[in-house]
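#random but structural
TW: two for the price of one
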Amino acid sequence: MLTRRTVLTATLAAAAVSTLGVRSSHAQKITKQEIFFDKDAPVLGNPKGDVTVVEYFDYQCPYCKKAHPMIKKVIKEDGNVRLVLKDWPVFGDASIFAAQAVLGAAQIGKYETAMEALMKTSGKLSHEDVEKALTGAGLSIEKLAAAVNKNNDKISGLLDRNYNQAVAFNFVGTPSFVIGSTLFPGYLDEKGLKDAIAKARK
């Protein structure tokens, strides 16, 4: 009988093979629609906003976690920005595990709850740390595991596409952003983010 951890880990392993097996040559087929309007990518902020901010991030990235409250604040205060969140798990198995779990949560309407729980963590994460943060936020690991397994193709496909895009843009780490027609390969402070949004809006 599978435990809750082995269910998620089995899915994780399949996703890791799928994600790491992507060939960068596929990256040249990426379209604007896929970057800004991937139907499987979570969207926060104003879904009908006139500017889209795309963030490539990792739940183990300290700069991603540092920037997250500021990004939410800017998006909320602006009121007319779509925030597209693209998991790009570059820090190993625990990062892929976290991405899978949160994207599983998205399938049961709990994306923000799960994402916020992991963004509040600090330091390097283990599988156990991820589970503890999610259960601490009131989420059921059994339900997340079932959602991940049921939607494995969708979740793995999304991670593949995110990976392809990051490779195509020559991003070297997280966080990285696409705002309007401009790439931002690295951390943005509040002024930098606001300026980028204003430039995209012109």
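TW: number two ↓
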Amino acid sequence: MPTRVPGTARVSGTAPATAAARGDQPVRNAARLGLGNIDTAVHLGFAVLLVASVVRYVMRHSPADNLLILGLAACASVLYAVVAVLARRGRPGMAWMAALVAVWAVLVVAAPSFAWCSFALFFLCRSALAGSPAYVAAGTTAATTAAGLFRMSNGTDLAMLLGPLAVGLMLTLVYDRIQHDAEEQRRLHAEVSHAQGQLAASERRAGTIAERERVSREIHDTVTQGLASSLLLLEAAGREWPSPAARAELRQATALLRGNLSETRSLVHELASPGLDGSPLAEALLVAARQYVPEVRLFVTGELRPVSADVRHALLRVVQSAASNIKLHASATAATVTLGFLPEAVTLDIHDDGAGFDPAAAAPPSDAGGYGLRAMRQRVEQLGGIFSVESTPGEGTVVAAQLPAPPPVGQRPEGTA
């Protein structure tokens, strides 16, 4: 049974809390400029202004004059519709646009009443064409509108000449800016989408690597350690058979293999530890250690309290791995496990008086082993704790871990957060 001693367990330092805050919320798609809706409004505006201009012209001119102008207006309407459809489908309509601008030039010079429709025609030129042809078509529209209005004033009103040109220039600058901003927004959206794809792929790779490392630690701390200990017992029993000691070692190896089988089944079912989860932490640690070192002793310091499932699991695996190392490598005559409870942390020390080793000269992990210390360190540090190994050849080994374990809110001293 665990032995309760006064005092405080040896602490190797204060554990800094390490947590990576992830704000992995997906970036919303950049709001695209509704040029399609603007085009629809422009086309409707052209139709309304064209009808109003036709009505105004018919009311102010004789039927003989109406025939030619109405024919030009109808031709311009058809050409406008063709260019608008081609532009919406993304097909080039240079010849159709040239014909539309030519017909419109004749119409607006002959009947300046249609000058208001130039606004819609200007936007159609910019949306249907690109580059210098768009500027030429828009400029021609503005120039012919200015000529028609100046002719309507009998060449006396300079504002009629300069006004359309100034408005055309301003609309060109505004449209260029809108187009530039839309292109920049699409470019940024594409970059964000690409970065999101790369981030998702990187997270998947990191998740796969982390899961492999986790499963590797679980297998090492359970299946591998149990099989290694069972193999040692069977080899010893084979050398001493059929003596009573050999039979005892055979029974112990059988028990270890049964426990190993149970651990393997636990790994298949969410890598749990059903044989230890229901018991108090101190007793669970003692049972885990005695699977490999039957004579181990356990001491508890501080006030016992519950710890989180992650901390409990890490402590159990550290004890299992350290006890297995004692059995396989230390040739120790005595081993102790000390569980200590501090105000905001829990500590664990596993000490043996065995052969010891030089931690700096320890072999890196390979097919022959060497994963135990690394797995223990990863377990502890991933929970924001501190892990250390102190050992000297011939003087034993101390494996120490400290994990953050604040008490429940109801058990905190007054005045603490």
